[in-house]
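We emphasize that the prediction below concerns an isolated chain of 253 residues; any contacts that depend on oligomerization or on bound cofactors are therefore not represented. The input was used exactly as deposited, without trimming of termini.
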Amino acid sequence: MSPEKLQAAITDKSRVLILCTPSNPSGAVYSEEAMRAIADVVREHPRLLVLSDEIYEYIVYPPSKHVSFGTLPGMYERTLTVNGFSKAYSMTGWRLGYLAAPKHFAKAAGVIQSQSTSGASSIAQHAAVTALEMGSHGGPLVAEMVKAFQERRDYITGRLQAMPGVSLTSPHGAFYVLPDVSAFLGKSAQGFGPVADVDALCRYLIEVANVALVPGDAFGADPCIRISYAASMETLEKAMDRMEKALKLENFS
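Result of the prediction step, given as a C-alpha cell string:
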C-alpha cells in the first residue's frame, strides 16, 4: 500500500486503517521510510485510527527491520497495536494475544467480554510469561527458528521463481509467499478441465499434485495463491516437486 493509494481511499467515513507488517499473506515488510509516509497521510485525518497488526514482528529477514507504527512521531495516540504469542513462540493452539493502546482505547476494548477476548487459560498465561523471559526478540531459540524460516524462504522462492508462468517477489518477513499464477487462469488443464480462477487452480493442484494451497482471492489478490512454508524442508521439497510437475505450461491449453 502506497501513501497515494491510501490517500485516495480515505473518505469522511473512514475511521480505522488496518496495517499488517510483516504481512500475511505476502510476507511484505514496510520500511521505516514507507511507514513514515503512511503516518504523514494518517496525520492529515484527525478521526482516523490505526490498528497495527504486528504479530510477525520477530520473523523478519535481514536487511529488513520491523518498525512499530506507534513509535512514529504523533502516532502513539492514534495507534492500537495488536500482537500475540502464536507466531514467534509457536503457541498456535493456545491463542493468547494482547492489545497495546492509549488507556482510554484499551479500557473501551475491555468492555467486550467473551470466551475469545477475556477467557485466556492459565496454561497459556504461564507459557506467555516463560516466552517473555526468553530474552529480546525471543532470544536464541527464536533466532534459530527465524534462520530456519529464512532458509525455507530462500528455497521455496527459488523453486517458484524458476517455474515458467509463475511470478513472485521474495518476501522479507512472516512465512508466506504469494506468487502470481495468472498465466494458468482462463485455460483448461489436462485431466481436470477448465481453470477459470485461482479457486479452480487450487482444486486442480490438490487433486493432481496433492498440494493444498489458499486462493489469493481470499485476500483480494485474485491472480495469486498463498503458500505457507511453516513446514519441514522435506515436506516443502516434495510439495514443490509435485507442484512443478503439475504446473508445466504444456499441461494447460
